[in-house]
């Protein structure tokens, strides 16, 4: 038995040795990766080129001081080159090859020393694919851009000699596959010989052959509010499996989610790029359409409002949960629907509840603080579809009794006399209306203290076994 145990140990050790040797041999077969750094002395702009052979179809990640910056596929030479505009200081720039067989990371440390005495502008621009793989958006961004006149060149030919109405953009569609050198050039009285900055754009054969749809949307401001309606407007929009809204590159929500391809968004002061994107089998790389939205004001003084909307089961009612922000427990959160005040809530954990009928509703959360005396508002649009169920369409009316804290409630809906139902206040049953009861009067009287109250009527019928609810919110100050 002892000899048998020894044999098991020897076999395990041999297997472990084979596996370890395979891993070592595999890593030894990985290519050497190097980073070439290109910089004009005194410039804040650096170009890093990852160079290696023998790796295909893997992910490449660039990082600065441990923060991921840019990722791309190595089937495009442009993605092996990373360009960045720094401030003065010391930085560690790394490239990581995300491959199961060759997990490699190589880093370079650079010392950025900017020559403030150079009279020529330190030109720079970013390049982004826009709407389709062969269309690009070039964004000029460098110190002193507001006072600098410059021109755009593609393969040595001038394509634009203005600054696009101070937006500093160039939109360009490359109709043929090939390699294109895109440059910005500038001459100033202080820099009479001129200066330039260039990037190489690689357009592959398949980039110009995709059958991508022409997307479009309309942007309409919501009155004087810092909010916009975005309406999809192009032929066949309702036939797309997916349309997505993005703001400054971040996904916000789907378009085709029952809202008739309409998107509503509340902004803080600032500059935003709003994009509609889609992917189809004929356009696997995706396509997009974007617009720039600018909201004036000081973003530093008002809290950034937001709330999540959560439907109450299958009922046409929603809970609205405000996000947390500094000082939320010290202010009153005011809610309005379609411009009418409907109630308040307090704190992050206190949701606001509202019962809707079918239709479209703009739900808004507003706050005023000492630092934000004019207030700030965030809104969302809620779409309630008309139901085809056999549930009764409950409703009731409210009337205050003089100046007292007492209120009268009258039920008022079709078929009211043929069903039983209950009255609830903040989830507790306070009265029942039973068919055939001598006490039934379809009426409720209640005296309240100060606070926020949710008054509901609830009914279940054989044709509506899951029940239905209708509520109103009452605020007593």
List the helices and strands and how they pair.
Layout: H1 2-28, E1 34-39, E2 45-51, E3 59-64, E4 67-73, E5 81-85, E6 89-98, E7 104-112, E8 125-130, E9 132-140, E10 151-154, E11 157-160, E12 169-173, E13 178-188, E14 191-203, E15 217-221, E16 227-232, E17 244-247, E18 250-254, E19 262-266, E20 270-280, E21 283-295, E22 307-311, E23 317-322, E24 333-337, E25 340-345, E26 352-355, E27 359-369, E28 372-384, E29 396-400, E30 406-411, E31 421-425, E32 428-433, E33 443-447, E34 451-461, E35 464-476
Antiparallel strand pairs: 1-2, 2-5, 3-4, 3-6, 6-7, 8-9, 9-12, 10-11, 10-13, 13-14, 15-16, 16-19, 17-18, 17-20, 20-21, 22-23, 23-26, 24-25, 24-27, 27-28, 29-30, 30-33, 31-32, 31-34, 34-35
Please provide a written account of the structure.
The chain is mainly beta and 477 residues long. It folds into five domains: 34-112, Immunoglobulin-like (Sandwich), CATH 2.60.40; 125-208, Sandwich (Immunoglobulin-like), CATH 2.60.40; 217-295, Immunoglobulin-like (Sandwich); 307-384, Immunoglobulin-like, CATH 2.60.40; 396-476, Immunoglobulin-like (Sandwich). 6% of the residues lie in helices and 53% in strands. Strands 4-3-6-7 form a four-stranded antiparallel β-sheet, with no helix packed on it. The protein has a four-stranded antiparallel β-sheet with strand order 11-10-13-14, with no helix packed on it. Strands 18-17-20-21 form a four-stranded antiparallel β-sheet, with no helix packed on it. Strand 29 and strand 30 (406-411) form a beta hairpin.
């Amino acid at each position: 038995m002892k000899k048998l145990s020894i044999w098991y140990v020897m076999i395990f050790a041999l297997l472990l040795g084979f596996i370890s040797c395979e891993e070592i041999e595999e890593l030894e077969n990985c290519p050497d990766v190097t980073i070439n750094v290109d910089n004009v002395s005194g410039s804040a702009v650096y170009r890093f080129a990852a160079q290696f052979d023998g790796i295909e179809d893997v992910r490449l990640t660039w990082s600065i001081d441990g923060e991921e910056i840019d990722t791309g596929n190595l089937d495009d030479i442009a993605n092996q080159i990373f360009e960045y505009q720094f401030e003065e200081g010391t930085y560690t720039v790394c490239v990581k090859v995300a491959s199961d067989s060759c997990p490699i990371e190589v880093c370079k440390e650079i010392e950025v020393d900017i020559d403030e005495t150079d009279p020529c502008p330190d030109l720079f621009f970013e390049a982004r694919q826009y709407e389709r793989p062969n269309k690009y958006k070039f964004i000029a961004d460098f110190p002193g851009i507001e006072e600098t006149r410059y021109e755009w060149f593609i393969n040595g030919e001038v394509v634009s000699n203005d600054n696009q109405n101070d937006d500093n953009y160039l939109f360009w569609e490359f109709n043929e596959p090939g390699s294109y050198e895109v440059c910005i050039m500038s001459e100033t009285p202080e820099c009479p010989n001129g200066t330039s900055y260039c990037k190489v754009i690689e357009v592959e054969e398949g980039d110009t052959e995709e059958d991508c749809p022409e997307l479009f949307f309309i942007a309409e401001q919501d009155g004087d509010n810092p909010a916009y309606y975005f309406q999809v407007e192009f032929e066949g929009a309702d036939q797309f499996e997916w349309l997505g809204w993005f703001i400054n590159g971040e996904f916000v929500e789907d378009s085709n989610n029952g809202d008739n391809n309409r998107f509503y968004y509340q902004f803080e002061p600032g500059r935003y790029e709003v994009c509609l994107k889609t992917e189809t089998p004929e356009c696997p790389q995706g396509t997009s359409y974007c617009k720039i939205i600018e909201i004036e004001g000081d973003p530093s003084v008002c809290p950034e409002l937001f709330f999540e909307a959560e439907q109450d089961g299958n009922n046409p009612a929603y809970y609205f949960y405000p996000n947390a922000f500094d000082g939320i427990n010290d202010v009153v959160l005011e809610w309005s629907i379609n411009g009418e005040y409907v109630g308040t809530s307090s704190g992050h954990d206190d949701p606001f509840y509202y019962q809707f009928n079918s239709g479209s509703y703009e739900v808004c959360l507003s706050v005023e603080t000492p630092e934000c005396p004019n207030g700030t508002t965030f809104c969302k649009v809620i779409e309630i579809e008309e139901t085809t169920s056999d549930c009764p369409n409950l409703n009731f009316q409210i009337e205050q009794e003089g100046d007292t804290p007492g209120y009268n409630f009258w039920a008022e809906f079709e078929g009211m006399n043929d069903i039983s139902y209950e009255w609830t206040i903040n989830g507790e049953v306070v009265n029942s209306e039973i068919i055939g009861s001598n006490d039934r009067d379809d009426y409720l009287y209640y005296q309240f203290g100060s606070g926020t109250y949710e008054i509901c009527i609830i009914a279940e019928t054989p044709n509506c076994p899951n029940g239905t609810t209708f509520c109103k919110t009452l605020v007593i100050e």
